[in-house]
Design goal:
Elements lengths: L10 E5 L5 E5 L19 H31 L3 H4 L1 H17 L19
Antiparallel strand pairs: 1-2
Helix pairs in contact: 1-3
Length: 119
């Protein structure tokens, strides 16, 4: 049977002559010094997952729209203005595909309308 320690962590503090304190871990401590991620309630997990998916889709939309904008701008002087509607449409298709990958969170139907309605 494994022996349980009374202390979870042990640190040795060394005071230096210039006033600084140096902290060192004693052997046997496990894990890192990073703080643990805060747990969220079970009811909020599907909402958080869906929010994360929507944010990824919005990011995909912005990345694709910028890529197409720069491509149109290289083609002609005001090419971005002429191709704006098509570029936004193509970017919205990319975002929709990004949303459709993976499973729905909790079987909730996802209705998304990402696009551009014109000027």
């Amino acid at each position: 049977m494994a022996k349980k320690s009374l202390a979870k962590r042990v640190r040795i503090l060394k005071f230096q002559p210039d006033g600084h304190v140096v902290s060192t871990k004693l052997d046997g401590s496990s894990g890192s010094d990073k703080p643990k991620a805060k747990k969220i309630p079970a009811w909020a997990k599907p909402l958080e997952k869906q929010t994360r998916r929507h944010l990824r889709a919005m990011q995909a939309f912005a990345d694709r729209a910028l890529q197409l904008h720069e491509k149109s701008n290289r083609k002609k002087k005001n090419g971005w203005l002429m191709d704006q509607h098509d570029n936004f449409h193509r970017a919205s298709i990319t975002a929709r595909k990004q949303l459709q990958t993976g499973s729905n969170s909790g079987g909730v139907p996802v209705v998304v309308r990402i696009g551009y309605n014109g000027l």
